[in-house]
Amino acid sequence: MVLVLAIGDLHIPHRAPDLPAKFKSMLVPGKIQHIICTGNLCIKEVHDYLKSLCPSLHITRGEYDEDSRYPETKTITIGQFKIGLCHGHQVVPWGDLDSLAMLQRQLDVDILVTGHTHQFKAYKHEAGVVINPGSATGAYSSITYDVNPSFVLMDIDGLRVVVYVYELIDGEVKVDKIDFKKTPTTTI
Amino acid sequence: MMISDAIEDEDKWLAEGIAGIQHNAFYMHRALDSDNLREALKYSAQLLSELRTSRLSPHKYYELYMRAFDELRKLEMFFKEEERHGCSVMDLYELVQHAGNVLPRLYLLCTVGSVYIKSKEAPAKDVLKDLVEMCRAVQHPIRGLFLRSYLAQISRDKLPDIGSEYEGDGDTVMDAVEFVLQNFSEMNKLWVRMELQGPARVRDKMEKERNELRDLVGKNLHVLSQIEGIDLDLYKETVLPRVLEQVVNCKDELAQYYLMDCLIQVFPDEYHLQTLETLLGACPQLQPTVDIKTVLSQLMERLSSYAASSPEVLPEFLQVEAFAKLSAAIGKVIETQGDMPVVGAITLYVSLLTFTLRVHPDRLDYVDQVLGSCVKILSNKPKLEDSRATKQVVALLSAPLEKYSDIVTSLTLSNYPRVMDHLDSGTNKIMAMVIIQSIMTNQACVSSADKVDVLFELIKGLIKDLEGDSDDELDEEDFNEEQNSVARVIHVLYNDDPEEMLKIICTVRKHIMTGGPKRLPFTVPPLVFSALKLIRRLQNQDGDVAGEEDPATPKKIFQLLNQTIEALSYVPSPELALRLYLQCAEAANDCDLEPVAYDFFTQAFVLYEEEIADSKAQVTAIHLIIGTLQRTNVFGVENRDTLTHKATGYSAKLLKKPDQCRAVYACSHLFWVDDQDGIKDGERVLLCLKRALRIANAAQQMANVTRGSSGPVTLFVEILNKYLYYFEKGNPQITSAAIQGLIELIKTEMQSDTATPDQISDAFFACTLRYIQFQKQKGGAMGDKFDTIKV
Known about the structure:
The complex is a heterodimer of chains A (188) and B (791). With 188 residues, chain A is of the alpha/beta class.
């Protein structure tokens, strides 16, 4: 059982002052094995904070990130899963599922984690699973109105991944979960 | 060498003294055992003679004293049992006065006196009065203090207190009080006698010795506090004035400090509250060198705790006007001690503020008054340089922030900014950060433009360069942290009412515009997004707000945004400005404001053309432009054509061929928008894709020529995917034949001699083919469509 936190689009301090207090109290160091971050933190302080939660931190570059050295895309293997990471502003049209599917094929990954739209998504298509953890701070987005703060926790166990999405709605944290299974030697 | 000699000598003398006591005690015990009064008196007098020494320091004298004390207890028991020695206590009282030397005589007298009082053959008050007067015969400080301390010890349980067995006609608590006060006065006089004179080493030694003796004097106050018969009135009328008289008149710094402190500690807070004026009145009369501020701080601390533990006494505080009295007293002390350093005065006010916040937290006028007093002290003096004083000022300013979790309360204190003005610029910034930190921790919200104005005035050290800022101190990390804090705080400025919110935005803008090029990249984005959020709120409102003369409208806010983002050109920050212009363009699109949106796109393009030279930055920028433009639907044909033409043109002009290729095929999406009334220009889509293909081809050939091998086929696979995308969407211009052709092309390229095997593009291609297979197997319309494609 490997816990992977997928989080991004915090936009601190351009669009939000900080993570919601309820999220902060949930995100405790030592519980998570990997963090994959879609980008747009935007400042070093946030990077350091995430690093303090878990030393295995993977980040891709968002268009507002202070540190321009983050890569455009990244692929990581965790357990039986190949995971691809990309902020998503590079894929036009933004949020378009078919275009994202192309990126997924290009990276040849089971799970593609991407952001930019600030809207949580988790769905399965031919090439695999696409997950958008949304914006952890509920930051303003030109694409999505009424953004609720959200992040995703993936529990990877063998060929199965359970995706938990945590959303802050009207001051309460609501959790939902979705199951995905991968067939051996082929993609999901 | 000399000191250790002296200590050795003292130890020797002490040992000798103890030996002397033990020697005489042996014989005294023998006398007691045989009920021999004369012998007992003889040997006890000899024993007590050891206490006549002048050679011991108080510390060592105490050891000697304790031995004697123990022996005197046995003697007292003997005295009490009249049947053993046959002497009446009255006669005994006479008898012991025949002792040769005065000190032993008086110790014996006190011992008999104890028995006398216990016997009740004479009123307690008479005996006590006699004893306290007789002790005057010993004027040597150490000997006298220990003697009187003995008197105090043995008389303690025999005072004619209320409810005690010694109370009677004529024997009242007043007598008890009188006795203790007198003993106290005499002891203080003796104590003060040990003057601090002479060279430093002698003075230090004397000071140490005096300190060792102080508890002997202070004990009397403790005894007074234990006398049950002393009620508030008695304390007020008699006890306090007499004690204070002694304290003031002795004019001794050490005594005054200790005794004031003692007084405050031993008597109940309730008494202090009711005698505040008298107590405080003594303060300016003390020696100027007395650390009165610690005394006052202690008092205020005690009173604050008192208020905190018993909220029901709060009205009393108001009734006795505690705050006013304390405030006046502090003022007086500062005035009298004209050369008090600033740090001392400020520390006093910090204590007063702590008191005020604990006892009268709702009286903001009091709080402001304290701050005002500090402003007065700080005025007429140059900017604070003393770091201790600075620390105290920071403590002063932090106290209200900690007490009132709602920052707005602190913002109403008119003297708050005035105090801040007196800090040097470094500390000013630190204080500003403390303020921001307090806001963020308490999750406070500032919701009126006026208060926002006050807040930004307070933190102006962070907002702009002030006089006195030295340039070489600018630490980049610190600076970034400061500016990011300002950025964060902008997000907690909020009001539900759009009019007020706009006022807030304008106020913030006014302040941050004074920040200069270094600060704008940090402060402009949060303001812009705050404004965009407001626009979105207004979007849903229709029509003008009734009664408003100059209502907040999206148009007005867009104008403001334009001017604000323009300021970034002075930094210069073209990449950031471009992103912000695009955000505004999209927002304008959502508001249906075509000319406004067009203008924002123009601004973005101008920046792209003129300011963004870095090729990597250009790639990102063009994709952002394309992505934004793809989502806009407000433009009429002409405007849209101009913009898309520009976008495609710039895409094709990127430096590296692969970047060109990708940007151009991205442009294809400009001509195909998937919603209901979205543009669906199949031909122009195809044109883009074909152009992308040509560029990809050229890229391959170039690689052949320059590197001797063709590059990876990734670009072709990407374009193939795009063909599939539009094929699926039903673009009639995209035929299955074209797709087939592409597939063959890719296969050929992969198998050619000059091909560089590339795992990634191989996998990509494989995935793509698999996808096609998947679609074929779907069946239905999609299956039919894909049927003609052979993989």
